[in-house]
Amino acid sequence: MHMCISGVYDHKFVFLSLPKLQKNVGLQSEAKKSRKWNNSSFSCSLNFKKPISKLDFLTKAASASSSSSLSGSGAELNEQVLVERKKKTQGIAGIDQDELQDPTHLADPDSCFCEFNGVQLHHKICDAVEDASSSQYPHIAKRVNFPMILLHGFGASVFSWNQVMKPLAQVIGSKVLAFDRPAFGLTSRINPVEHSSPVSQDTRTLNPYSMMFSVLATLYFIDFLKAEKAILVGHSAGSLVAVDAYFEAPERVAALILVAPAILAPFTAQKVDKEKQGGRDKQIQESSLDFNNPENLFFRFCSLLSNLTKYVAKAIVRMVKGMGEMINSLYKKALSTILRSAFGVTVVRMIIDKFGIPAIRNAWYDSNQISDHTLQGYTKPLKVKGWDKALVEYTVALLTDSASKLKPPLAERLSKISCPVLIVTGDTDRLVPSWNSERLSRAIPGSCLEIIKNCGHLPQEEKAIEFVSIVEKFLQRVFGAAEEAHLQAPPGKSNPDMKSSPNIIAPAANAPAPTPIAKSGPPLPVPGGLVEDGIFT
Predict the structure, then answer these.
(1) pLDDT in tens, 60-102
(2) pLDDT at 488 over 90
(3) Torsion 404-408-414-418 (CA) sign
(4) How far apart are CA 181 and CA 158, in angstroms?
(5) Boundaries of each AB hydrolase-1 domain copy (predicted)?
(6) Helix segments in 225-296, DSSP class H
(7) Buried-exposed string 290-312: b where 16+ CB fall within 10 A, e elsewhere
(8) pTM of structure
(9) How far apart are CA 406 and CA 475, in angstroms?
């Protein structure tokens, strides 16, 4: 018996035998816009009210053919259906978006979760293990009594520290903790509109995607490790979190290690130009005072008119500035609304799909060294429910953050850092160039700079062994020298100069000598918030 497919209204498929089909075709021959094909083995009549997609047609056709006696046709149609369905659900950066999961279902065996202000923070902890391998660092393990907290950069996660967590734990002889900042890794994605996490007893709330939240989470983990101080290691944008955590609570930070820091270093040349310009203005003002003889009424009148003009100009400038701030505020609100819309989320997904994997490859000096395991580690967070909306909220938090306006610019506060600082960068970093790290080292008094050759933006991954060695030598110079000075000091007296200060750090043999900068006073406490103007964009 010959079988065929007859498409009728509402896309329903009816299977008819040949005699019934001929009768059916005869009934439909009078219908307008109908087409009919006849041969000895197949007949079909189609008349659709609505267009049908190629995928739906192939799916229904394959289902019909599989139950018919047409040999081979069903298999071919099924294969076409699979191809079309694969194209439809290709995913973002190779990750299927049809089966997103809860972060806890994607966790590794050594993953841990803890709640901070209503957010489940994903973190991992490595402790020093007393075994044969620990004999590599016998001299340093007894002197570093502080744990270490690792802060990843934008788009990264705890995964970026996997290679160095255990070696660093052996180096310091203490615990090393790395956690995923909100919007990244396996930390839970929260809707900030529905989420309310009070900072104190007042009515203020803390946006979980704000940088201030990451700062307070860092200080929370210091308490979590039951330590008075900790060594903060920040990579890329994580360096900004580390520096702001220091300004938020300088007494809780034993040392700072900034890896490829995405912090815009100040331009020293511009400061010199401003000073010279100020000198010129002073000279002009003095000469004008000499020229304006009080006995000359004409010049006195001109002076009054000039002062009046200045007052009016300042008032106009204030008015224009206020209008500019209002327009800027409206612009930010409008942009935030667009980003939170379905269109904005779609744009974010397109950007991640288009530039996600290339950005990872561009971060390495030799992209051929990137394994499939590394790519899977970086794209794994794309399997978390709500990852796209969380990334949008993170972007909105950066745009609308008002806390940075309450504090001086970060470039003006870098000279206030008094704890030991190590800056590590790759000589071929394409994302944050090494010359910016060199300028940053000159802006922070007493800081050490180490440049790793043939290395890109990820020294802790691309040159893990060399990175750990640099950190080990830095900690040995800082805490080793402090302990030796304490032991050599007379009983009951301590050497005030041998505190944990960057002035006692001797530069490494292969490190360029930092530019001498006068030692500043004790750090000034800066209340709350995070500076966003130092982000390297």
Answers:
(1) 555 555 454 444 455 555 565 555 555 444 578 888 888 889 9
(2) no
(3) negative
(4) 9
(5) 149-468
(6) 237-248, 268-291
(7) eeeeeeeeeeeeeeeeeeeeeee
(8) 0.67
(9) 34
